[in-house]
Amino acid sequence: MRRHLLTVDDLSRADIERILGRAESFAEVSGREIKKVPTLRGRTVINLFYEASTRTSSSFELAAKRLSADLVSVKSSGSSVDKGESLKDTVQTLSAYDPAAIVIRSPHAGAAALVARWTPAAVINAGDGKHEHPTQALLDLYTLKRRAGALEGLSVWIVGDVLHSRVARSNILAFTRMGCRVTVCGPPTLIPRGIESLGCEVRYTLEELSEADVVYALRMQHERMQGSFVPSLREYAAQYQIDGRRLGAGQLLMHPGPVNRGVELAAEVIDSPQALIADQVESGVVVRMAVLYELLAGRGAPADARAPIETPAPQPA
Amino acid sequence: MTDLSLDRAPAQPATLLLRGAVVLDPRAGLERTADLLIRDGSVAELGDSLVAPEDAEVVEGQGLHALPAFVDPHVHLRTPGREDEEDVDSGTRAAAAGGYCAILAMPNTDPVVDSASVLRSLRERARAQARIPTGFLAAITRGQEGAQLTEMAELSQVGAAGFTDDGLPVRSAGVMRQALQYQRLAGRTLALHEEDPSLSGAGVMHEGEISALLGLAGIPSVSESTMVGRDCDLAVYEQGWIHVQHVSARETVEAIAGARAAGAEVTCEATPHHLLLTDEAVRALDTNAKMNPPLRTERDRRALIDALRDGTIDCVATDHAPHARQEKEQPFELAPMGVTGLETSFAALHTGLVLTGELSLSVLVERMTSGCEPFGLPAPTLVPGSAANVCLVDLDAEWEVGEAGYESRSSNCAFAGRRVTGRVRMTVAAGTVAYRERSFALGAVA
Q1: Within an 8 Å CB–CB cutoff, is residue A22 touching chain B?
Q2: Which residue has the higher pLDDT, B137 or B442?
């Protein structure tokens, strides 16, 4: 495994299995009354969030705290980012505090990779634009594995707005890497051209949904409704909503949250025992603990966690 | 209509004897080792064992090639408005270092070159600062807003080298048609940035597998080719002539070839980056791979190379687009579009197309020297009697792009860090020495 977690591509199948195993052991810790371990005592984790987030930011905070790290959370509003500071300057400033890890969420693809060029800290991508969200994919794998037992051979349908979804991209890569068959399904206007090259199949209707073992519904963002991607919410729900009639017995249901009740999911399936949505949230903390552990305390992490910062090329006179 | 003339700062006409280089001028059917005498800024003689006049500098050219110097019809000098990124002095210095003897600058500056007064002041600046002859295109529409034509007749009289809204398409077919009608009066070429904004939208790269992987909004090839189709039809209908800028897609090449066969007067250009790179270069989200039109697929690149070889694409243009370092050091989606290319075009194309056997050196030289023909200016030549426009290149010299910095004020080069083969040692533009590589200059003196 590399020094940073920027994309699912950074992870081999063995890396993923090791992280899931580690998360399992942290789950045991989380069951105790004192949920803390001293692994990262004296080390600093910085959460740098350029986008609103509840689940991801709070679970990273909890994960760092349960590993006894010192945690600093920086949000774009109310910080120097508000004053127009560039990402590079913000990262170099925060790096002066000598953090062991920077967790970054940004509305722009590739932001985490840029941060990794500008800091000696380990960088964790907590979502970069519509590109990737690798820790979401890991917690989804963890959740599904706990429920289904094994991942190999499962058929996973990812349904909804694939075009704008970083979760979809990371999950296509992660599920296929673990031996699942992935199908993406949604309105043709919301399925990006060329997505098959990630190793998934494409369907535009739910007709064959019954072949899925797992239905992974994506959030349908209200702002997408204005861009004429779909004619109306009503039409979208009629064609793609997962409801009690469409979700077969024995099929599992996942969703990265937050859910739009009555849009991508009908209320009856959200609350059904087939839904893993609450388990996904719960898994967030232990999986992110495992990722922090892997990067900061795992195999060979500390020694090379102090790589030199990129030196700028000479400027022309 | 007045004749078109380019501007540059006054400089001493050169008298020099270039000894023993391979003199290659494909248009003149010239390729042989010879001495080339430049006297008072003109090519005076071409022959064996020429005797240097008393006042002549002697340049040893053994092992080097003397080519007609290059012409770039598509450069952003960022002046007025963004002189921190490029100015007339630095931009023309970069051009001379790349072997160019003439360039045409785009009008998408701040303010836009859309009035006679802005154009006059730019020409004045070029007459004070430009190292090589420089022409200026004016905008097709006021403020490049796409609504109202500029005073094209007056701008022509003041010396506009052509008209373009480069950076933006002329969105409305009606306005495009009026510009073509008005061309009968203004008499200059319309150079067109072809893109349908309703298809390119918020796109930041080519739409395809890699944009799907990266989650970036794509610009489909049809955004360019459908607009080219429209404008070729309009040009035929109004009997005008157009020049299509920076062709990037296979579909566009086909549209142009088809329109030409049907009688449209259309010329076009391609950039070194579109001829050499593909959207694979975007995979690492390097902002020096971000430009408009975007890098497309290998299939498109192949079509561009074929079209450059067979003449469907008339000339190479760099679309040299300097950007400040802090603006390129941002996430890909936020970084501005454009890359620099004046100093690397020959070396990059020589390395990527000639050394690989895909294009002959002669064809490359032809396409790099013909950039002003679509605008009514002749291509430079080495035939005795012509103004001296010569670049001296070492085809074997290997170097790394950016290793010694750039003459340009900006460093956002599409080929930064790449090893290339072929180096411009000296450039003579319109009769004066415009560039000399430092080590080469020292060698020549010794």
Answers
A1: no
A2: B137
